[in-house]
Amino acid sequence: EGSVTLNYLVSKAYAGEAYALAFHNNDEYAIPAEQELMKIFKWSGYPAFVTDMMPGSVGLLNEGGCGASIDKSLFETRTHCGVAVESTLEGDRVTVNARVFSEQTMDYRIAAYVIEDKVIGSQTLSTGSVQEDYMHRHVVRKMLCGNVRGDSLGEIKAEEEAEKTFTFDVEDGWNVENLSVAVLAINEDGHVNN
Q1: What pLDDT, on a 0 to 100 scale, did the predictor assign at position 169?
Q2: Closest by alpha carbon to 161, among 144, 185, 143, 180?
Q3: 3-state class (DSSP) for residue 178
Q4: How far is CA 165 from CA 84, 180, 183, in A?
Q5: Would you say 156 and 46 are in contact if contact means Cβ atoms under 8 Å apart?
Q6: How far is residue 124's CA from residue 173's CA, in Å, rounded to a whole number?
Q7: CA distance 29 to 142
Q8: What does the H/E/C string look like for 66-95?
């Protein structure tokens, strides 16, 4: 049900404005970054959400709480940077070049994650039954940066940019047609700012 709520919010209510990174827990799609995020943000149950890595934007994933958190991010939080992402695929190797442009002088970190959409696999439903052909959306497959807080870009002067290149190999079982890369510019307060 959390997945249904999240998919509604990012596909309908906030299409093109909010993007989901679905970190799994205790299943075949889980990656270590999920446990790191849980230690940092200390959510109390599952499914949970964190908006823009802001400590006050953590809660159980339901439309009211998550929607209000996204609204606050979109309409009350000032962004100071933009991110441009270009990627190339050669064989199984993907190269991702990310550029962060800043409107003001600030220290930034950059985090990047490989996302696969429309992954078909098993899912335990709220009824307790298991659906074997469940379509998982926005599944985080891999963290490309050194840690969940991102890699340092250092200080970016006002009206200037910095860039970082990431590479990864497409793993067996991933559908390259459904892959994307989420790049997060994280400001000196530790919040996603793009």
Answers
A1: 98
A2: 185
A3: helix
A4: 12, 15, 11
A5: no
A6: 21
A7: 10
A8: HHHHHHHHHHHCCCCEEEEEEEEEECCEEE
Alpha-carbon Rg for the chain in angstroms: 17
pLDDT at residue 65, as a whole number: 86
DSSP H or E run through 60: strand 58-60
Q: What is the pLDDT of residue 120?
A: 95
The residue among 68, 63, 114, 66 whose CA lies nearest residue 87 is 114
Contacts of 118 (CB under 8 A, 6+ apart): 135, 136, 137, 175, 178
Positions in the chain whose pLDDT score sits under 50: none
C-alpha to C-alpha distance for 188 and 106, rounded to whole angstroms: 7
Neighbouring residues of 151: CB distance < 8 A, sequence distance ≥ 6: 109, 110, 111, 145, 164
The amino acid that residue 36 corresponds to is: E
The reported pLDDT for the residue numbered 96 is 98
The sign of the torsion formed by the CA atoms of 24, 25, 28, 30 equals: positive
Angle at 188 between CA 185 and CA 192, to 5 degrees: 35
The one-letter amino acid code at 140 reads: V
Q: What pLDDT score was predicted for residue 10? A: 84
Neighbours of 107 (CB within 10 A): 14
CA atoms within 13 A on the CB side of 58: 15
Q: Provide the token pair at 56.
A: 């006050």
Q: Would you call 106 helix, strand, or coil by DSSP?
A: strand
